[in-house]
Records
---
Amino acid sequence: MAAPRILFIGVNYAPEPTGIGPYTTGMAEGLAARGWDVRVLTSFPHYPWWEVPPEHATLPARSRAADVEVHRLHHYIPREHKMATRAAHEISFGRRAVATRWGRPDAVVLVSPALLAARMCAAKARLSGIPVVTWVQDIYTLGVSEAGSGAGEKAIARCESGLANISERVVVIHDRFRRLFTERLGVRRPVDVVRNWSHVPDLRNRRDPAVRRRLGWADDDVVVLHAGAMGAKQGLESVVRASQLAAERGSNVRFVLLGDGNRRAELEAMGANPRLQFIDPLGDDDFHAALGAADMLLINERPGLTEMSVPSKMTTYFATGLPVLAAVDESSTTFDEMQAAGAGVCVPPAEPALLLEAAERLAADPARARALGANGPAYRERLLTPRSALDGFEVMLGQTLHQPVRVLEPTATTARWA
């Protein structure tokens, strides 16, 4: 019996270092290693930079990595982030994806974001009689609602619920997402929960004085590191203000923003000070070294961002054994995750003084910091492993294809699709 052929369609994929890309990559490669015939239709790497870096611009349009065939498409990438330009970005990718030959997949997995592209591809799949699985990483309806963009909320909700209801199955990354899809959006299709996993190695006990010196961190600096995208939903303006307070008060807390995003230039323009540092995106080894050399890791969300997403950085943070400082609403999914993991401290968002004071209190109590930090890896091992995610996804795919999952032996190659 031939291996089932699965086509992933998503705008983010390796070598993108953060966001959704590592999860689509990990799932595609994990299924291929278990014997599934996997192909990916994606874009050229552009996140979190919102442009294709020179080192990635020469990637081949077609390649094969980890037994997965990858086909990359050029499409519009906005530099200015408004609803209209983001929609154009998704529609541009969707048009290219629909116009591309897919071969003969047994099922298509559509990754949302990008919602509009996924909706377009779902229509082609249904017309072709191909079962559709929608894998939801962020809920657009909530994002529009929580951003106060009421004008587009109904249209987005119809698009999101419509996509779910023409799918064979919907996969979400948290129980709260499932409740929102079934109760608020009225989704009638089966909704499965497959948690995102920690896709980095064990990073405990990685504090290296040489790394700290190389990054310009003094021995007595209390480094609070935020790693990842610098966009609207991160609300990092309050972190910049917290650093300004630290400088005014002579605090030894240093806030470090590592990464890139469409708000970075605005954050830098708010004013440099000795308690704030920006670091460009790093390669995997340097990134892991920087995480391990920090004193605590930061999650920061814009006020009102309650259920839109589960920050992908959490699974990475929980691999470090360092305490996590989260400036989030108590009603947010992130707050629930922090409470479940017991891996750090939560403070209200957009409160720079409270953020600074929480960092100082945690630094002054190293025993508590160690205890909280130890809870992250324990939670990771219980719930956030690649194996549990792959197991759940395989079961879901078997149900989609209406057949029991037969795990095949890993192969060096699989037949190319017509």
Note: Residues 366-383 form the longest helix (18 residues).
---
Amino acid sequence: MTRPFRWNEAVIAMAGAGLLLLLGLISPVDAFFTLYRDWNTFLFFLGMMGLSALAEAAGLFDWLAVQAARFARDRASLLFLNVFLLGSLISMILSNDATALILTPVVYVLVTKLRLPVLPFLFACTFIADTASFLLPVSNPINIIMLSHFPMDLFTFLRLLFLPSLIVIGINIGIFFLLYRRELQGRFQLERLPSAEETVKHRAYFRYTCVVLIGVAMAYVLASAARFPLSLVAVGGALLLLLGAVGWKQATVKETGKRISWSIFGFIAGMAIVVRTIEDTGLTAALGHWLLQLSGGNSFGAVMVGTAGAALGTNLLNNIPMAVVMTSALGSIQHAPVAVQHGFLAATMFGCDLGPNLTTVGSLATVLWLLILRKQGIDVSGLDYFKVGVIVTPIMLLAGALTIWLLL
């Protein structure tokens, strides 16, 4: 949380894991098998970041942003709505981190050219990244982390989380329109938009990228239904895009590698070992039993406790370590009724995915968003962010949790 000397989170997590190994609190063999069991998570992150980087190289996101502006005609309010819809689409297929990392700079350049107020559109980018991150299992790596340990079929996932996702997206859009209604009254000149030729760097590779991404999206659904590892779909799609990029000389393996945030693997690995060591003390099992008692052993309590606990934890620990902790804790409630188990699992994913919208420290996507803004000379303080998050996030959490409970 404090990040002394501005150390990278991965360095701190790996240092904690290394200290546990040195002290003999976990054996190297146990540490190895702990990481080996999470292979699906590691490969999914790799594939997702590869897909995002290569789609960006094709100019796909610039093209989509320009099309969103053209469909808005010359109205700022319609462009604002289109940014939300575009962010939902990117989050659904390429994950929330891709939305924050790639859509934010694209939207910044676009609204600057159109001479529109930038902050409403930038806030839309970061909020929709997390708000739309449970439309599909692949929409947030948190979902993959949890579903790797608690297999849930695609129908159950969609039954419990798809409608709540649509509801909270609608609430997010509605409240943001109220908050920024004055800034969104303006119009812009379509002549300021770049042409399609300017956004598409290589037409053949651009078309190839679109076809591959459509295929990946369809494969995600089929793989989820068949409980096939989603990481293999993501990595396979990234390899296909890389082959096309190299063949059309649009990117190299080295260039693509530079666009991948390798430190995230160290962060996840370190936290997995730390949490595994905590498991051996019985602390996470005690947490699971305590959550079950707090819920009263019924589905309503499971959803409310799971949502509140996960949302609070993400803003204290960050959502990735919180998801790892909750995954361990929920392993001790497998004797509970199925409705209670599903309630806890769906609510935990929901809270870990949406809860980070409350503060700037809740998720990696928001941290990436802040770094992008600072590069552009825009400083959004934690308090400025919280003033927006505290208005919209509790309402979304409550509405979504109640919907999940009704769907159980």
Note: The chain has a mean pLDDT of 90.
